[in-house]
Amino acid sequence: MSRTEENILLHVPMNQWSAISRGQDYSEHHEVLRQFYKRESITHLTERVKVLSGDMNLLPTKLSFREPKGRWGSCSSQGSINLNWRLILFKPEVVDYVIIHELCHLQHLNHSGSFWSLVEKHCPSYQDSEKELKHNQMLTKFLDR
């Protein structure tokens, strides 16, 4: 596997990839791809949390990465934020929205009007990002185990 500025390239020798090989098990390639996305995601998301939490002056006590089904992030009452590493597959503004959403829970551990006002202050187009998450979450399925 290699990476360019705009693409991730998975190298499979031509003699191992053909129309008749589609039924073969490529689990080792799939796991390499999953691990690549996970590693890159953790690096990128950690940096975005650092930047956004500094801008918002809302600092989590802990940052973890998981892969829950149907959940992009969570925040505990102890100030710990969990993010789904598959967020890396979405546009940067969607990623930022999820991070901002969880950071706002550090101040409001609910979905009150005050919470949504704070989200909107830091992410005015948050509703577009919510729609994007909902309508495109199936695009992450290729990383399923």
Report on the architecture of this protein.
The longest helix has 30 residues. The two termini are 19 Å apart. The mean pLDDT is 89. The chain contains four helices and five strands. The chain has a single domain, classed as Metalloproteases ("zincins"), catalytic domain (Zincin-like).
β-strand number: 5
Could you name the CATH topology? Zincin-like
Largest sheet: 3 strands, mixed
Uncertain runs: none
**Strand numbers in spatial order across the main sheet:** 3-5-4
Quaternary structure classification: single chain
Helix content percent band: 40-55%
Broad CATH class: Alpha Beta
The overall pLDDT, averaged over residues, is 89
Count of the domains? 1
Distance between the termini: 19 Å
Order of helices and strands: EEHEEEHHH
List keywords for this structure.
3-stranded mixed β-sheet, 145 residues, alpha+beta, 4 helices, 5 strands, two-stranded antiparallel ribbon, Zincin-like
SSE arrangement:
Elements: E1 2-3, E2 8-9, H1 27-56, E3 62-66, E4 73-75, E5 80-84, H2 92-104, H3 113-122, H4 126-136
Helix pairs in contact: 1-2, 2-3, 2-4
